[in-house]
Amino acid sequence: MSLADSQAAPECPVRGRPRSEAVERAIVEGVMKLLEEGVPLAELSIERIARTAGVGKATIYRRWSGKEELFVDVVRAAEPPDPDLPGTSMRDDLVALLEQLRRRGLISRSSAILHNVYAQMKSSPKIWCAYHATVVEPRRRIQVEVLRRGQLTGELRADVDVELLNDILVGPMLVRSIMRPDLDLPEGLSEQIVDTVLEGLRPVPRPAGPAPE
Predict the structure, then answer these.
(1) For residues 154 and 158, what is the distance between their CA atoms, to the nearest angstrom?
(2) Mean per-residue pLDDT for 67-95?
């Protein structure tokens, strides 16, 4: 499975004035083509990308401030789209968020190119920082907000540290996706993780009895 074949996300977000989606797609696919040919991220210049995509360098700079921002959009285009949260309960929203991570892990495993791109991104502080700021952190904020809403609705104990709990929920999926590729990512894993963690964190009803004096 190639990086181009694994694209699942919608078009890259629009910045500034309207422009041709076909041109933007040609640029993204041009980067993917070079990556599939084995060109390292460090050797990809805006000039080379423009030549491959059949556009001018100014066309790229009108859409992206530099190649770091462009690479983030290229990688995000190959990931599953961010999920639409059902909003029926904290538990259902958490399952939807973990399921996106599970599907992302499956795509990373099936695409050797994408796996290599992630590894190269981590060796480039500027690109990794841009990816973390525009992709990882927004997703984390959504996850933490779901947990906070769960505390307000009484689905989660009020004394739970939601930042830590988010790490506890996301951790097992990341371990299986990144650190333990020998382990499966089966259907139903998201539900299993969420239900196992939440089982011991639901509010405990206070026993009935006389009110304190």
Answers:
(1) 8
(2) 90
